[in-house]
Amino acid sequence: MVNPAHRVITGAHYGLRDWLVQRITAVLMAAYTGLLIILAAVYQPESHEEFKALFSIQWIKIASLLFFAGLCWHAWVGVRNILMDYVHPMPVRLTLQITCIVALLGYLIWFLDILWG
Q1: For residue range 84-111, what is the model confidence (pLDDT) as tens digits?
Q2: Residues of the chain with pLDDT under 50
Q3: Quick count: other Cβ atoms within 10 Å of Cβ 68?
Q4: Using CA atoms, how far apart are residues 35 and 63, in angstroms rounded to an integer?
Q5: Distance between CA atoms of residues 74 and 29, nearest Å
Q6: What's the CA gap between 38 and 42, in Å, rounded?
Q7: What does the alpha-carbon distance between residue 26 and residue 47 come to, in Å, rounded to a whole number?
């Protein structure tokens, strides 16, 4: 018999949701990359100031934020699944998961500071 508390801690039944998150965030990141390639081809920024001017446009900032948030979510799902599959001692796995969450949140805050700072 499976202990219900064990399911909550280990994250059982994330399969379909994880699969959808990975696919949706991958499509989001691919669309943003395509957009960035088009913008680079149209505007042809050659200096730091020109790139800075391009990323000062509000909708590009929002698209960049959505991209980076999607990247962090994509990374979290992947790392969490790897940890659940290959790191069996619960204290070690939870420590690594918390470390990953803290790092990803730190990266997201740093990205916000770069984008709007």
Answers
A1: 999 999 999 999 999 999 999 999 999 9
A2: none
A3: 19
A4: 9
A5: 10
A6: 6
A7: 29
